[in-house]
Write a structure and sequence with these properties.
The structure holds 2 protein chains of 2 kinds. Chain A has one domain: Formate dehydrogenase/DMSO reductase domain (Formate dehydrogenase/DMSO reductase fold, Up-down Bundle). Chain A has 16 helices and no strands. In chain A, helix 2 runs antiparallel to helix 15 and helix 3 packs antiparallel against helix 4. Chain A is globular. Chain B is built from 5 helices and 4 strands, in the order βαβαααβαβ. In chain B, helix 3 packs antiparallel against helix 4. The chains are: A mainly alpha, B alpha+beta. At the A-B interface, helix 1, helix 6, helix 8 and helix 16 of A face strand 2, helix 2, helix 3 and helix 4 of B.
């Protein structure tokens, strides 16, 4: 055909890889992010993130000196920002596991170019999450005996009937398994970097990390099975983690917490928040390093759709909370919901509805899903909205429970803000560091895409 | 000279050529050989007679071990060593013990998958003769190699070399041990 522009086949999805990619160009381009000279923009970003990170150092130090009294926590709101931020960060981590495990099981090939940094995001987000409960104990070094089962001089053991202990095991396992999965995926890419690195020291470091990987067919055979099984065990794990986090609330009897809808609603919210964070990080990385051939329009479109779908599940959760408050006919549940919707925190509640339910409806429009700036703005709204959701759940339920005599308002302090902002600094710092020292896109899985693509091209030309 | 050789390493153009060469070499009767590629190639290992999956067994054993130790830990703590009456619940309130049992099962199986894979593959192994071939660093980028090892009973330096060349290898190199 002599048509000037190639005709798009409407039955075929958009490509997951840009045109003209070969094994050589993929390897060159993706390893060059690490082996080339440090870009000035990277140093600038590192300095900014490092500056915010200092807030974490400062807030944590002052907390350990003075105790949790520097926060806005008080009775009746004994669980303030620490638990809000914990749930927020854990939720963000879930998209990484979803992308790397569930989409692997479903053979969704578009995951290959976003799984690496989504997994990195998971690990750093879980690190941030873990800091909050530990710091909330005030003295983490003496809290170990009721968190971890180890034989101690007091002969006491943790209480295994409590969801808080399940949380310790769930989050600990989640972190460890995510780290293992991430490292497994990195081994072949470390081998690439070992062979591409120019400096002796980096050759040795990547050589040690790659464990002498040489790409043998027998190695790949066992490797692929190990990756598949890890994906298989990670999938129920990721569902269990946020379910257990939600049990921290729903096992309690507080109005607004004691709801059976919490586990699925929390898991959907986690994936929602996580995809928003993947876009928040991925779009700037794509722009800065020019990775448009690897993170294509197809990826943006798909991520937009996942956010839309999980966002609708979350919206359904909000609707059901309203419905149950009425249908339970419990005056406490009813009052809680009336107070949440029209009480002193109603501004926060309606901002949450705006961020999480109203604005994401723009994702129905394809042009919005394909526009990087549009997606970035929506993902920022969702990041904020998911934080507000946890704030609403924690604070509006606690601040007015059964006894009006114990009602009070919750006021956060600058130290709450400092610690929260500090963990964001830590997260960005680790992500920026990661981009520079490890391949931000899984190189060997992109080579698989190249192989598949040349197969498809052959069959297509054979059809002509 | 020939006794000191680890084997012969042939380089091919792409994954399909490598897969075809591995099949031909296996059909020719070669058994001690391995292929090296920068990404997994479907059916490549199976075509050389290496097709028994042993990782799943390891992971299953680890999962059972993890779940049993998780439940055992909670049983020992809550029933034997530190019995606490919480709201009149039985000491062995097993439904509350399910989450930790599950989590430890997952934790152990993840370690089983990683460590099992490494052990089966003989990793970490910093030195291997194929690294002596200067071109071999492309096996982690865009090179596709087939190595027939000298240990193979059918191996003969000149015959094997001409056989590999007949498979349209781009280049055939000696691999120093």
């Amino acid at each position: 055909m002599g048509s000037p522009a190639p005709i798009k086949d409407p039955t075929m999805p958009a490509p997951v890889l840009g045109p003209g990619q070969t094994y050589t160009t993929v390897t060159q381009k993706l390893s060059a992010i690490i082996t080339s000279r440090t870009p000035l923009g990277w140093i600038a970003a590192m300095l900014i993130a490092g500056a915010i990170l200092q807030l974490l150092m400062l807030s944590a130090t002052w907390l350990l000196i003075k105790g949790t009294g520097i926060w806005g926590l008080n009775i009746p709101v004994g669980w303030g920002w620490a638990i809000i931020n914990f749930v927020w960060w854990i939720g963000i981590g879930h998209a990484g596991t979803l992308i790397s495990a569930i989409l692997l099981l479903m053979r969704q090939q578009w995951r290959n170019s976003i799984n690496r940094f989504a997994e990195a995001m998971t690990i750093f987000a879980v690190m941030c999450a873990g800091m909050f409960p530990l710091l909330h104990t005030g003295r983490p070094w003496v809290a170990a005996y009721w968190l971890l089962p180890y034989p101690n001089t007091m002969s006491v053991w943790p209480q295994f009937r409590s969801p808080l202990i399940w949380d310790v095991f769930a989050v600990g396992t989640y972190f460890t398994v995510s780290l293992i999965f991430w490292y497994l995926g990195l081994i072949p890419d470390f081998a690439t970097l070992r062979d591409k690195a120019k400096h002796k020291i980096s050759q040795i470091i990547y050589g040690v990390l790659s464990m002498g990987w040489r790409g043998s067919a027998k190695h790949w055979f066992n490797y692929e099975m190990a990756a598949l099984l890890l994906a298989g065990v990670s999938t129920p794990l990721v569902l269990s983690v946020h379910s257990i986090v939600s049990l921290d609330f729903s096992v309690g009897l507080i109005p607004g917490w004691h709801a059976t809808i919490f586990p699925p609603y929390f898991v959907a919210g986690a994936v929602y928040a996580g995809f928003a964070m993947v876009l928040t990080l991925g779009l700037p990385i794509r722009y800065f390093y020019g990775l448009h051939d690897y993170i294509t329009d197809r990826h943006l479109n798909n991520m937009g759709k996942v956010m839309l779908a999980t966002g609708l599940i979350v919206a359904y959760g909000y609707a059901m909370e309203q419905f149950f408050a009425w249908y339970s006919a419990s005056p406490y549940e009813g009052y809680m919901m009336q107070n949440r919707t029209f009480g002193p925190y109603s501004g926060t509640y309606w901002s949450l509805i705006l961020c999480n339910v109203a604005i994401p409806q723009l994702l129905w429009i394809k042009q919005v899903r394909l526009s990087p700036s549009g997606l970035f703005i929506i993902s920022m709204f969702i990041n904020v909205g998911m934080w507000l959701e946890r704030f609403i759940i924690v604070v509006t339920s606690l601040h007015r429970d059964f006894m009006p005599s114990s009602w009070d308002m919750y006021h956060s302090t600058p130290w709450d803000w400092g610690l929260y902002a500090g963990t964001i600094g830590f997260f960005l710092f680790m992500m920026i560091l990661f981009i520079r020292v490890m391949p931000v896109i899984n190189i060997f899985e992109i080579r698989q895409l190249v192989a598949n693509k040349s197969k498809h091209a052959e069959t297509a030309s054979a059809d002509d | 000279m020939a006794e000191n050789l680890y084997g012969l390493l042939a380089e091919f153009d792409g994954p399909d050529e490598l897969l075809k060469a591995a099949r031909d070499a296996y059909a020719e009767g070669y058994r001690k050989m391995d292929a090296y590629s920068p990404m997994p190639i479907h059916d490549l290992s199976e075509s050389m007679g290496y097709d028994k999956h042993r990782v799943p067994t390891i992971v299953l054993i680890c999962a059972i071990l993890g779940a049993c130790s998780g439940f055992g830990l909670q049983y020992w703590v809550s029933v034997i060593d530190y019995p606490l009456n919480v709201g009149g619940r039985p000491l062995l309130s097993w439904p509350s013990f399910i989450p930790v049992t599950f989590e430890l099962g997952v934790l152990f199986s993840a370690f089983g998958a990683l460590i099992g894979m490494l052990i089966l593959n003989g990793l970490p192994r910093p030195y291997h003769p194929v690294f002596n071939v200067p071109n071999f660093e492309r096996a982690s980028g865009d090179g596709f190699f087939l190595c027939i090892e000298a240990e193979d009973p059918k191996f003969d330096i000149s015959e094997t070399r001409s056989f590999l060349e007949s498979l349209k290898a781009k280049k055939v190199d000696d691999v120093e041990p």
